[in-house]
Design goal:
Layout lengths: L1 E3 L6 H11 L4 E3 L7 H4 L4 E4 L6 H5 L6 E4 L9 H7 L2 E3 L6 H16 L2 H9 L16 E5 L3 H12 L3 E6 L10 E4 L4 H6 L2 E4 L13 H6 L5 E4 L8 H10 L4 E4 L19 E3 L10 H18 L14
Parallel strand pairs: 1-2, 1-3, 3-4, 4-5, 6-7, 6-9, 7-8, 9-10, 10-11, 11-12
Length: 315
């Protein structure tokens, strides 16, 4: 029994999943909490993970594998999965194209002053006196040098940017000009014109960007967070943006998701907000299903799964 707790698939995508899993029946259930009889038979679960609780897991004695259709798993009761030996996989390999394009679009948005031109068009202003900047020659500091970070680094170098990376080991990766460890992040913060956050949220990375880190950044620098909202101390960020100790920020993730309507970030002219969509394009579900298809074949054969989450590390 395969339970889908996602209700955004097209009819063609649902049929494709059924074909992949046949003869295992595919059941779509938007709210698995309301179907205890079904839960008792679940062997494979596809979910975003937000509805997966310790109590829900207790109702699934036959569960062997959880496929999460996102990268982050910090909201999933990992200890219970580990205790029962339940396999957990994510789809971390599908985000390189959309998220790298997102980052480059934000860099161009700020360097080419697109906000200003949009406002001047609305006001019918023909202004050729104020010249724009260029991405070439700027330094991009990427916190997280995995597949997404590498894709961003590759595109940034095509634009003539200097690429500085931050990872656990400090080992140089393809398309990066230099690399430092997270413990030596001061160098990246001081030199980066664009600071890009891609890290998972762990005990070590929670609020790794706070008041002290923001004040190490250049006054002309921009912060781009497409990793996890908890990487940034939001109150500190609001304060530094108000004081203009940094130039601005592009934020796709927040400590409170969705961002409350009365939050001060909404009204800041030096902030660009997107609703946690940097990774999600019209191709998102097709890529997720293809990733699941590869893993389902391996699952049936008892082979090693791809994108298996390390339950000890939490990513």
């Amino acid at each position: 029994m395969l339970v889908m707790t996602i209700d955004e698939f097209s009819k063609d995508q649902i049929q494709y999943l059924q074909d992949i899993c046949s003869p295992m029946p595919v059941h779509l259930e938007p709210d698995i909490k309301n179907n205890s009889t079904l839960l008792n038979h679940v062997e494979v679960l596809i979910t975003f993970g937000f509805d997966l609780t310790k109590e829900t897991l207790e109702q699934m004695p036959s569960l062997k594998w959880v496929q999460v259709f996102q990268t982050g798993v910090e909201h999933i009761p990992i200890e219970e999965l580990e205790e029962r030996g339940i396999l957990l996989t994510n789809v971390k390999g599908i985000y390189s194209t959309p998220m790298s394009e997102y980052v480059m679009s934000m860099i161009l948005y700020y360097t080419r002053q697109l906000r200003r031109f949009i406002q001047e068009q609305q006001q019918h202003i023909w202004n050729r006196e104020e010249l724009v900047d260029e991405a070439g020659g700027k330094t991009i500091a990427i916190f997280g040098a995995g597949t997404i970070g590498t894709a961003i680094a590759e595109k940034a170098r095509m634009f003539g940017m200097h690429v500085l990376g931050v990872n656990t080991s400090g080992q140089l990766r393809p398309h990066f000009d230099e690399m430092v460890t997270l413990d030596n992040k001061e160098k990246a913060l001081k030199e980066g014109d664009f600071i890009v956050l891609l890290l998972p949220e762990t005990k070590k990375t929670f609020h790794c960007i706070g008041r002290n880190e923001l004040r190490l950044m250049k006054e002309s620098a921009y912060l781009i967070n497409i990793g996890r909202g908890g990487l940034v101390d939001t109150n500190a960020l609001v304060n530094e943006l108000n004081q203009k100790t940094i130039q601005g920020a592009a934020l796709d993730v927040f400590e409170e998701d969705p961002l409350p309507k009365d939050h001060p970030l909404w009204d800041m002219n030096n902030v660009f907000i997107t609703p946690h969509l940097s990774a999600k394009t019209i191709h998102f579900y097709d890529r997720c299903i293809e990733k699941f298809k590869m893993n389902f074949s391996r699952y049936q054969k008892g082979e090693t799964m791809i994108d298996k989450v390390d339950l000890d590390k939490g990513y």
